[in-house]
Amino acid sequence: MAPDWVESSGWPAPGALDRDSVEARLDRLVRTNRFTIAVVFPVTGAVLLLASALGWFAPAVEALPPALADPLAWVPDALAFNPWLVLVGVAVMRLPLVAGVAPLVDRKATAALLALAAYAYGIEFVGVTTGWPYGAFEYGVALGPMAGGVPLALPVFFFPLVLNSYLLCLLLLGDLARSPWVRLPVVVATVVGIDLVLDPGAVALGFWAYDGGGAFYGVPWSNYAGWVLSATLAVGAFDWGLDRAALLARLDDCPFMLDDMVSFVILWGGVNAAFGNWAPVALASVFAAGLVVTDRFDVPTRPRWVT
Fold it and tell me: Which PANTHER family match (predicted)?
């Protein structure tokens, strides 16, 4: 018999966990905390990233009375670009997409994800060591644990950029999405557009830097040529591995499925605005408009905490 606290919390009793119950719990968690996940986390993340990049932590601590400043002297080193805070924050913002797609992941989808993960690690390692295909660059901030100069959590950063683009395009294209000759190029272009927002903000923060800089806010055009390649392969993998009809049905039933893209617009639109990167801000606004048109920018305006 399960302890009283287990029954009162609504969590499955030990030994009663299965895929359906875990997915149901995750679904409920996201639905109940949409504002916190999709709005509070990206706003907080943007502030912490800007504070890290612009060196706000140390002056803020030094401005305190000595009785408080001395015990808090550890704060700048602990919070400035803390890799675990970055990773946890990103993982939390990914929860809506994970909860939305999880019921659709079968053996075929798992094979596509594993193949795509292998490609992502491989191409990133090649990119870091040779400069191909994105252009010579190096990481300036550890995005969680690193191995061989590559973030171990790379799929957490890469997959959602592609899948969010895929889902948004399915909604925007409507019946036109039935044709692969329309669907695939439009999604690939959208993924590249996402990176036109992401990369300038990341470079401004110091996440990574390209040797010799680049014409587009410090990013070379070769980076986007590389993203055409990677986006084409990734979009093809998702298109093959996921049932499109099931995705559309899940989108109809799951209002939070694109909340991760809402977070993306808030976080990277805000970061780019802070650095005066107005072209990426304008593009982020285009993605925001797409979310509004598809009725996906509908995160509750007030937080609803779990009771």
Answer: SLL0814 PROTEIN (PTHR39419)
